[in-house]
Design brief:
Rossmann fold; single chain; five-stranded parallel sheet; alpha/beta
Length: 145
């Protein structure tokens, strides 16, 4: 299987890339690399998704699957626009909560959601101190909000 992991250098995305390599898949990761490097054996494409469609230009060919691990709705939308037509299966894993409360153990998908926003979402964690309260990525069930 030809797999692309959008991110791939830390935590969940690195684990996905590592497991796919162990399963003998052909794995590529597209990431800035500020938090780490791609796992051994993975083709690492250094790119900044803040650059929009240009970030995906080095990626050639079709993908059996893409796993997108992101907290940024604009990044998710941009990736789908750039790669969706040449990808068989897409999995989006949000690293941002869509739920209004995080202090309710056992809450399920019927829990109250944060309000939907169309505001642009800064993608760099270092910018968070300047984020207005409305600048949050909203996701649920794999759809960017």
């Amino acid at each position: 299987m030809r797999l692309l992991v959008l991110a791939g250098t830390v935590f969940l995305s690195a684990a996905i890339a590592s497991q796919a390599m162990a399963d003998s898949d052909e794995v590529s990761c597209l990431a800035r690399g500020h938090s780490g490097s791609a796992p051994d054996g993975v083709r690492w494409v250094r790119a900044d998704r803040d650059e929009g469609g240009a970030a995906y230009e080095p990626l050639v060919g079709d993908w059996d699957a893409v796993v997108d691990v992101s907290r940024s709705a604009p990044h998710a939308r941009g990736a789908l626009e750039a790669l969706g037509a040449r990808t068989e299966h897409w999995t989006y894993v949000s690293s941002c909560s869509a739920y209004a409360r995080n202090d309710q153990p056992g809450a399920d998908e019927s829990a109250e959601l944060l309000p939907r926003t169309t505001d642009p979402v800064p993608s760099r964690p270092t910018d968070r101190r300047r984020w207005p309260p409305s600048w949050r990525s909203r996701t649920r069930s794999g759809t960017a909000r």
